[in-house]
Amino acid sequence: MLNKNLAVTFLSAITAMCMVSTTAFAAASTPEEAEKSMSPECKAFAADPNADIGEIIKAGCKPTVGQMSALMDNPLGNVAMLFTQFDFYRMTNDSVTDETAVKSNYMGIAQFPKKLNKDWNLINRIVWNVPSMPLDQDKIDAASGQPQPYGELQGTTLPPVDSQPLPINLFDGRTTGFGDMYYVGLFAPSQGKKMGDGTFLWGAGFDLGFATATDDILGTGKWTAGPSALAVYMGPKWKIGGLLQQYWDYAGPSDRDNVNMTNFQYFIYYSLDEVTSIGAGPNIIANWEQPTDDRFTVPIGLGISRTVQFGKVPVRFGIEAHYSVVQPDNVPSNEWDFRFYVIPAAPSALFDWMN
What we know:
Blueprint: H1 4-28, H2 31-36, H3 40-47, H4 53-58, H5 65-73, E1 79-93, E2 99-115, E3 120-133, H6 137-144, E4 151-153, E5 156-158, E6 175-176, E7 181-189, E8 193-195, E9 198-210, E10 223-234, E11 238-251, E12 260-271, E13 276-280, E14 283-287, E15 296-310, E16 313-326, E17 333-347
Antiparallel strand pairs: 1-2, 1-17, 2-3, 3-6, 3-7, 4-5, 7-9, 8-9, 9-10, 10-11, 11-12, 12-13, 12-14, 13-15, 14-15, 15-16, 16-17
């Protein structure tokens, strides 16, 4: 059960974030001040929440915060974003001592589209991680005489396939460093398909994993590849969809465990207004190298996000909490995940090379 003080801290952080973001939004500029300097054409664009961002910029106008927030809602949209995400996991080790520990991970994601032709875009994602694991690499090496099969995949622990426990306390010490890197490429139609009051969008492609971790327990030690697919419904209020990724290893040291893992990030968000949403985007993990009882991690969650304007840059702030209703039984696993993220964005129309 989540510690009461931790829950209170989380709720306080949500309240503080909303207050700060509201103040920043108000301080940036008032609608009256912005409207006075607008041309009639720019006023017409500003009054249309569905106006094309590229056409707005070509006309010498600026998109509103609401328009940019809607563009950022679209994971396949024509917008460049830099995700700065921090996850703090409360891990349990029920199979040995009922101990708990905190694992953290900073994840950076550079996402940018590339227009291939009038009908298709390539959505590029470059992902890097800086994990901090509640295990001491030196103690593990000294106890076993060889690297142990712990690692990171999109911020999620890969527990050991071997059912024999390590001859040390798993939650003893800490190792922090650079983790594995990933690339995801999704080919997506330039235009979505109308569905009711909203739009259905999809993309399909591939992912690549690179063994760049500075310590064995911070990465898989393997080079990986597999297919990826994304589908999303963008409604007036609801955004519902998911990103499915599969990883198999094709190269790497033979003494490291094989990688056969599925990562499904589903997301459900509801817009309270044009710049504020509630919902969550947890990651369901299936480690197919594990026995059935230790294979799945299935979290649910809730959070809030708000897009504000800092100078000329729209920035989204968000905070979420995820609880794993299904967890591995016999290996260390993630019980709670507290996620904080900051996402500055820019329309791809500003960058000639993206077009």
